[in-house]
Amino acid sequence: MLRPLLQYFRPYRLQLIPVVLASVLEMFFNAQIPMSVKFLIDRALLGHDQRMMFLILGTLAASTVVVTLTSVGRDYLFAKITSQIIASLRQRMFEHLQRLSLAFYAGTDAGDVMSRFSNDLGAVESGLTAGVSWGLQPFMDLLLSAALVFTLEWRLATLGILLCPLCVLGPRLFSKRATEASVAKQEEEGRIMSSLQETLMAPAAVRAFNLQDLIIARFRERNMLLLGAGLRQRFMTSLMERSAALGTLLLQVVVMGISGYLAFRGVITIGTFAAFQALFVSLSYSFMYLAQYTPNLISASGGVIRIEELLQEKPGVEDVPGAVDLAPLREALEFQDVQFSYTGEQRHLDGVTLSIPRGKSVAFVGPSGSGKSTVVNLLLRFYDPEAGGVLFDGTDLRHATRASLRAMTSVVFQESVLFNTTVRENIRMGKPDASESDIEAAARAAEIHDFIMSLPQGYDTMCGERGGRFSGGQRQRIAIARAMLRDPSILVLDEATSALDPATEAALNATFERLARGRTMISVTHRLSTVVKMDCIFVMNQGKLAQSGTHEELLARYGLYAHLWHKQSGVHVEASTGRAHVDGALLADIPLLADASEATRAELTTWFAAERIDGGREIFHQGEVGDRMYIIAHGTVDVIREDTQQVIAKLSDGDYFGEMALLGDVPRNATVRTEGPCVCLTLQRDQFQQLMLREPALRERIEQVAAARTAAREL
What we know:
Blueprint: H1 2-6, H2 13-45, H3 50-99, H4 102-106, H5 110-129, H6 132-152, H7 154-163, H8 165-201, H9 203-208, H10 212-264, H11 270-311, E1 332-340, E2 349-357, E3 361-365, H12 372-379, E4 387-392, E5 395-396, H13 402-407, E6 409-412, H14 423-428, H15 436-445, H16 449-454, H17 472-484, E7 490-494, H18 502-515, E8 520-524, E9 536-541, E10 544-549, H19 551-556, H20 560-568, E11 571-573, E12 580-582, H21 584-587, H22 598-605, E13 609-613, E14 618-620, E15 628-634, E16 637-641, E17 646-651, E18 656-657, E19 671-674, E20 678-684, H23 685-694, H24 696-714
Parallel strand pairs: 3-8, 3-9, 6-7, 7-8
Antiparallel strand pairs: 1-2, 1-4, 4-5, 9-10, 11-12, 13-20, 14-19, 15-18, 15-20, 16-17, 16-19
């Protein structure tokens, strides 16, 4: 248990010397008192030697003053050392987290990491802080007391020492289980921290979906598990302490009885009896203090285990020895037969080969899960490919420094989180040494300067946690200013506008088009209307590069891109008014409506009503009985299985869902939730039923489609 903690003291060996010397002085003082009892009784009291009595008492008084002063100094110095150890350990943990790759964060609960900074580090601090008063000092007192009792009466001392294992037998028996219980409790604390963090990060979603009862029930279940783990840990700790105390008391009774008998028979003097008892009580209590310190050690050891687990995590992406600094891009970024998997179970990129010439604007599009964002993750070297290579002017990125790559790139993510500091400092993070004029120029480029100046505190306005004081569009523009402050030669947009409303998206796309001039711009998006003017469009599908070319070239090939374009161009949202409508051609792609006449579908387009839904809202819940179908005009939704809470599909512009509700009281077979603000076109069942009454042939065909769908679902 001690070994994990002692490693942290190695850098402070010299500073510990005064601590040890002061503890040695206190050790001699603690032994001085019982030895003084012997001489006080045998020589001063029984010998009626007043001078001896004053000499002994005066020496004890002077020693008390000296030891008190040195002990106070020792405690301050040791507190300083332990504080430095904890601060250094906390800094190491934080710096290590910054070096870990995204794969670590993808597979780790943030609450568990936070628990290592709070609960585990607190346990280590508690174990270190008590190290002198409950560990080192009792251990030294025990050694000296053991030596002194042998000088007083070696036979009695031998017997006492042989019986001393009674004090540690209980702690020895329970220590392993106590350690396991402590680690289990700390792991449960990590899990409950994760649960708490999830709730604190999404209060609006909890209330919007009326999830309070569900969240409370889950927290109660997790809390009961922590209660059980805490109860077991405290019970095992209590067993250790009680068994140590019981052993100590039994030892004292045995030794007192034997030494009393020897004094009664005249084998030892009364002074020797009193001194021996005092020393042995000190010795046994030292055993007990050490035993009572053991639970602290166990908890600290459990904390060390979890902290070291974190520190032993290896970054998935590191600079190799001799890595070179990249020069500004001259020719092209290239993928050469790249293969990659996040999990090792399936290929997320499979043999991708492509080239992005310098100064060109390119886009990666494709269905959800096709691999387009994975391409960007490898371009930015958040991950390394398993096979093939990502080349920067012919240099494999694995042989280049990450710092030089990221110095010439800037990224605007779908959710650009702002830090809880001022607007100025959030923008400055793009370039820490930027001047005030540089910051304002970047804000002007992002078209956010005027808004910032309209704020009461201007650039000194606090952004709030995750930028919560601003709208989504305002956050994105501040993030764009941060990105542009670096004057990047490569600008990456990763679904940068997908979580915004149509008007804000249109305005930001105009800004991006202007900022892309003279730069290499790489855009990842599912919305094809934003990529029409791109120099090249790469169409991804199931981890492979399916097509590439300009918008016109891809439409002419009638492949996947043309299919996606047909689907998305079938719905329209006016950026200025927010009005939405659907084309009859898109309705023909819906199996339930495929056999309807062109005139009927044209009439149906007038029946769809636009419905605006905020981000993070539940459109409907699995098991509910529906009364309408939906077509997404703008936005993205997640389709979720409630039993597993897994996202089984992502739907975006032009996709439809819930159409079986048009036929009758059919329960929804999944939950649908918006990722960001959405505009949906909805068709009510009552209106659709009127259509089927008018066209019996269409009704018969729809019933056949519904029966086939039901049979497929049962299989």
